[in-house]
Write a structure and sequence with these properties.
mainly alpha, two-stranded antiparallel sheet, 9 helices, about 0% strand, globular, Lysozyme-like_dom_sf
């Protein structure tokens, strides 16, 4: 006959493990969870078109992005006349250098189109923020190479970055002697307009002693 007297005294082997495990689960649920700091987007650098409205942020972002790709050659270039335009450029970090080139384009857009992305000049020859001719855009291999595409602010500026990357590195100057920007944009041929553009961009934080934009 089977002896059942000791059956109630046998404890399952897992019970001793389960109790402390459950306790740990409960304590873990009650413990404060680590706080994950929110990702704060980096502030955009100051541009001459900022006062036109928040829609210009897209222009700034597109220009800064283009300077990391097809305009990357500009970031390693130290033009011979850079002291006129951006005194802090030589020792500037890549983001400050990119901000300078974007800022210069924003200052140029004032004279080319008064910051109007739909502007068409020269009897239908030049289009957009910095007035680029479709033939010029095609010659430099821009993605935007038609009048309708060049009246898109971001695409116009991306093309401008591509053009500047070719001419500035070719000539070794921002605009001196008709080279660099001056090879394609008329406002650089005017001493007064050059002075105003240089005065504006050189006063920005990214051109002064390594202050983050």
């Amino acid at each position: 006959m089977q002896d059942k007297r000791n059956t109630s005294r046998v404890r399952p082997a897992t019970l001793g493990v389960a109790v402390p495990f459950l306790t740990l689960l409960i304590l873990g649920a009650c413990a404060p969870q680590p706080t994950v700091a929110p990702v704060v987007p980096e502030a955009l650098p100051a541009m001459a078109w900022d006062h036109q409205g928040s829609h210009t942020d897209a222009w700034t972002e597109a220009t800064m992005d283009a300077l990391q790709t097809e305009g990357a050659a500009l970031l390693s270039e130290v033009p011979g006349d850079i002291g006129t335009w951006c005194p802090g450029y030589v020792e500037a970090a890549p983001r400050q250098r990119a901000a300078f080139w974007a800022g210069l384009l924003s200052a140029l857009a004032r004279f080319e189109s008064t910051w109007n992305p739909q502007a068409v000049g020269g009897g239908g020859k030049w289009f957009g923020l910095v007035q680029i001719a479709p033939a010029t855009a095609r010659g430099y291999g821009c993605d935007a190479d038609s009048g309708s595409e060049l009246t898109n602010g971001a695409e116009n500026l991306e093309c401008a970055v591509r053009i500047a990357a070719k001419t500035v590195t070719r000539d070794g100057v921002v605009a001196a002697g008709g080279g660099g920007f001056a090879a394609d944009w008329g406002p650089f041929a005017s001493a007064e307009k050059r002075r105003e553009m240089a005065q504006w961009v050189s006063s920005q934080s990214y051109c002064r002693n390594q202050v983050s934009p």
